[in-house]
Amino acid sequence: MRHLPNIICVIRIVLIWPTIDALYNGHYWTALVLVAVCAISDALDGWLAKRFNWQSHLGKNLDPLADKLLLVSLFLTATWMNLVPWWLTAVVVGRDVMIGGGAVIYRLWFGRLHGRPTILSKINTGMQLAVVLAAILGAATGLPTPEMVTALAILTLLTTLVSGADYLLLFTRRALAT
Questions:
Q1: Which structural domain, as residue segments, surrounds residue 167?
Q2: How many domains does the chain have?
Q3: How far apart, in Å, are the Cα atoms of 120 and each of 32, 48, 114, 148?
């Protein structure tokens, strides 16, 4: 049972392809259901790991990787299909590249990372998921309207920029402290 959170996380990674395939082929309701399953599984594996002390080194790396793979895949596909503005996707992907590159540089030059997602990062992840879900729902039903999705995209852009700057400052402060 100790490995159940990791198994759930792997299942979430496996669900990325069918989710993207459904979205790409215009099966918006299927895509919405699969994204919901991924979101619920993310909450479930985190809860199980914390509740029963089933945390592992693998899980600490696998969970954020699964989240990033899902969100980046959703953003790229939704942008390709003109559901999400390209400028938001560029900033979202750029932020993730910056964080990943910063983590690698920190690890190589300064030592082990002991990072956990910040509250700003969690808010940003929620906003990113919300804008993609709103865009897919809008494609499926007409509501929210494209203008509403754009307004949500602007808010998401702001949280993405603030979260990215927060991580940049955090890495810089830690590097200077060593």
A1: 4-177
A2: 1
A3: 25, 23, 17, 23
